[in-house]
TrEMBL record:
GO molecular function: hydrolase activity
Name of this protein: Alpha/beta hydrolase fold
Pfam families found in the cross-reference section: BD-FAE (PF20434)
Keyword list, A-Z: Hydrolase
Domain BD-FAE-like: 28-215
Length: 267
């Protein structure tokens, strides 16, 4: 494994850690990469949803990376999105060196990190972001999105803390709605994998349902698994992250199978 941590050019306190397969393992073949954006309500970055997830994808044959993005007041002005798009752009710029398949970049996020992952698939042509990143076209649209119990809607079922950290507003108003993913989905949104639990008390399952409805409306390919029981923040659903839940733990293998089904298989 090649392990490297990179300070991003446009990052405030952000850092990108990459977990790359050794070139000798690759036989000169490029591999897909999974960018992981942990949760934490945009107030912190949850380590439980960082390296344990990266190692799981690495062991499944993927390159992996963890983005520890800017949080709290540093999350204002779309800063986490800027850092996520810069990470994707870095993968493309260093694709040959790191043996990354440029057309197989997925973003996997949990809770508020799920909102950030979904933002990369719905805000990649946002004019304000293009201006901040000095781009006039695609600023880093991923090829697939993986979402675990994601924050989606700024409306009735919002996780208010997440939207406050992004927008500075505690209300369901224009400032918060700007970041509402269900309002941003369109036919160009990448294929999406979603998992949630029906009784999640922190980010209600309606967030996933609203996203599914928007994806169906715009005919975006998706797969969704809603498990009947499970607390918020399950991550890998095992003892390593202190949330053992064998049933919900199936999400990971289901996700890898889904990635294979959309052409993201590791050769």
């Amino acid at each position: 494994m090649k392990l490297e941590t990179i300070k991003l050019e446009h990052g405030k306190k952000a850092a990108l850690t990459v977990y790359l397969h050794d070139i000798m393992e690759l036989s000169d073949k490029a591999r897909p990469i999974i960018l992981i954006t942990p949760g934490g309500g945009y107030g912190i970055v949850s380590e439980r949803e960082a390296e344990p997830v990266a190692i799981a994808f690495y062991n499944a044959g993927y390159h992996a990376a963890v983005l520890r993005y800017s949080c709290g007041e540093d999350a204002r002005d779309m800063q986490p999105m800027i850092e996520a798009f810069e990470s994707i752009r870095l993968f493309k710029e260093r694709a040959e060196e790191w043996r990354i398949a440029e057309d197989k970049i997925a973003v996997c996020g949990f809770s508020a990190g799920g909102h950030l992952a979904a933002s990369t698939g719905t805000m990649w042509n946002e004019p304000a972001l293009m201006e901040r990143l000095n781009r006039t076209r695609d600023i880093g649209k991923p090829n697939a999105i993986i979402l675990g119990y994601p924050v989606i809607s700024s409306g009735e079922f919002a996780h208010r803390g997440s939207f406050y950290n992004l927008s500075g507003s505690h209300e369901d108003d224009a400032a918060a709605e700007f970041f509402s993913i269900d309002k941003r989905v369109n036919s160009e949104t990448p294929p999406t994998f979603i998992w949630h639990t029906e009784d999640d008390p922190a980010v209600t399952v309606e967030n996933a349902l609203l996203l599914i409805s928007a994806l169906r409306k715009h005919q975006v390919p998706f797969e969704c698994h809603i498990f009947n029981k499970g607390q918020h923040g399950l991550s890998m659903c095992n003892t390593e992250v202190n949330t053992p839940n064998p049933h919900c733990a199936h999400w990971f293998n289901l996700c890898v199978e889904w990635l294979d089904s959309i052409g993201f298989g590791v050769e």
